[in-house]
Each structure stands twice: as C-alpha cells, then as structure tokens.
Specification:
Layout lengths: L3 E5 L2 E5 L3 H11 L10 H20 L7 H6 L3 H27 L1
Antiparallel strand pairs: 1-2
Helix pairs in contact: 1-2
Length: 103
C-alpha cells in the first residue's frame, strides 16, 4: 500500500501504520489502537499524529509538531483522506486474511 503523506507549511511528512505508531498511541491514551471506545475523531486524529510521528522518527526526519500544533494544521479534506486510507488499509488486511483461509 502506498504510504500516506501529510503536508504542513509546504513540507511533506510520511505517515505509516506501524507497531511503533500503535505503541505511541497506547502511551498517549492508555488504550490499544484496536480498542477504540467512542472517542471517534479525537482518537483518529491522535492515531494520525502517532503514525506521522513514528514514520518521521524511523526516517530520522524532523517532525516539530506536538499533537495540538499538528491538529491546528489539519482541515477536513486531510481528515477525509486519512479515513479513506484507513478504510482501504482495513479492506486490504481483510482480503489478505480471506486469501489465507482459501489456501
């Protein structure tokens, strides 16, 4: 799957769903990524930040935004693209699981 990117002030930042991002989410929220309980948009934005933070850390790319600053640069189009990316990622994972069952 193609990586997702976030552009802030003309700079592109990578974004990937990784174990590192999931761990960061757990550290920030106290919940596992797979166990979201009605925190909807807040959790989705927090997880998006975690995915960008983790991808930048892995690539040794400076990411100067805390969660609040990061959220201030998001608009509804970025959030909609992120939701579509998550949905596509989930569909691919489910299809891979179905393919394994067929073998």
């Amino acid at each position: 799957m193609k990586d997702f990117e976030i552009k802030i002030k003309g700079v592109k930042y990578p974004c990937r769903i990784t174990l590192r991002a999931m761990l960061k989410f757990k550290q920030l929220t106290g919940r596992d990524w797979g166990n979201l309980d009605g925190n909807g948009v807040t959790d989705m934005i927090t997880f998006l930040w975690c995915c960008v933070w983790a991808a930048c850390a892995t690539e040794e790319k400076e990411f100067p935004y805390d969660l609040d600053e990061f959220t201030g640069h998001l608009d509804s189009s970025v959030f909609a693209k992120w939701m579509a990316y998550l949905s596509d990622s989930n569909k691919r994972e489910n299809n891979a699981d179905e393919d394994k069952k067929k073998v």
